[in-house]
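Encode chain A's predicted structure.
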Amino acid sequence: MTARPKAFSYLRFSTPEQERGDSFRRQKTMAELYAAQNGLDLVEDSYRDLGVSAFRGANAVTGALRRFLDAVEEGQVPKGSYLLVESLDRVSRNQITAAQGLFLQIVGAGIVLVTLTNGRRYSTESINANPTDLILSILEMMRAHEESEIKARRLKAVWRSKRERASQQKLSSRCPAWLKLREDRTAFDVIEERADIVRLIYAETLKGVGQHKIAQSLNQKGVQTFGRSAYWHRSYIKKILENPAVAGVLLPHETEHVGSRRIRKPCEVVENYFPRVVDQDTFTRVRAMHFRKAPVVGRGSRSVHMLAGLARCPICGGTMTRVNKGSSAKGGHPYLVCAEAKAGAGCQYKSVRVEQVELELRAHASRLAKTAPRKMSALDEMRRDLVARLAKADAEVAKWLKVIDEAGTSSSILSTLRTHEVKRDEIRLALETLAKRVSIVSRSERRAVELASALVDGGQSNQEINALLRQLLEAVVIDWRERKLELRWLHGATTSLPLNLNLKAA
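Encoded structure for chain A:
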């Protein structure tokens, strides 16, 4: 007796709602009925992608369909077997070239692909005998992709509309741990005891206290955490310090796809979406400090020097780190040397006394205040240009969306629309970056005056002065070759200060 051909069902749907509905039962029943009517040996519970989208091809890359294709290649699924699917859009909703390639891969491996809704069978033999079948399959897969493309764009449009109405109606109940949504969803209320902790974290950071020390202090005081964690951790302090929600800002994201990968891209910020718990000036100062990696103080009593985390080598541009030569009790002094040279990885080893660098900073404090960056007209001009370009990009996107609504879509129209959307997103990101620079520059003059005062009167610790410097500067190049300090401001300008150093060769 001849063995009956094996049949494998492939069941797929995209959302949990479909699982609770009739989709799964319908696909399963259709496969069982077809196998019984056509004398096939159906393998129970064959391949299932439940809650997996075929729009970007994830099911064929990491899903159950990928396992089926692997089983075919490895010979576990014999040639002449049947793959039963409700319709071709269960196999793929990807762009037509990828969808057709997958379709041909299946039938080219000797598998008979059956679409149960119309009973059509696709195989190498049937397509060669009747090429029209291939054309029909291509048309069906094109339709499936365009349906998914339009659905995705309409969903984006819905969320874009929600963001535009965010001042009247909140997008969702999601919010920072120091806030809670009102029952009518019109606003968030502040949980004051938690907001006080956030303000304390920012205040300590401006004093130069590190994230680990802040977490340690909160744990020692027995301050309750915001979440399920039993203790405060440095990583959570970092998240709070980087969260624009403390200043009332929502930074929404859209999901973009590159192949089968999902990438979150930032959208235009929504100001005053949350109630502020930290004033804008404090938030900007802390954000400026975190443009660079903060200095790390090791174990023991060693204190932070003024340029911790800022000092750079004049040759390789890398970090300069502190080394101690002899104990302070015996007249030893801390020096700055290139970290690469210290590790024996290259560069040139020259040591510069920390005390001499700090004395020069104090001596030229007034010059620091005078050369602090002012808000430059060049930045305003750049912003005007970007705003104009964004308006044109928005108009182009709106034009092509209108074309789709009125006349339908095609692969070329969708490709043109995607090109304009990418350009628009790039301009938005450039505007956001520029806004950060303008915000920093506009407050730098006052910060520099505060820094000069701290350097002159000697009443503040090196740690507090370091915190002020990191709010203003990106780096300080200790150029022992040219006998100067090169201060690089966050907005891009440079100030040079003279240095008289006694260099110590290693």
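Residues 14 and 51 are 4 Å apart (CA to CA).
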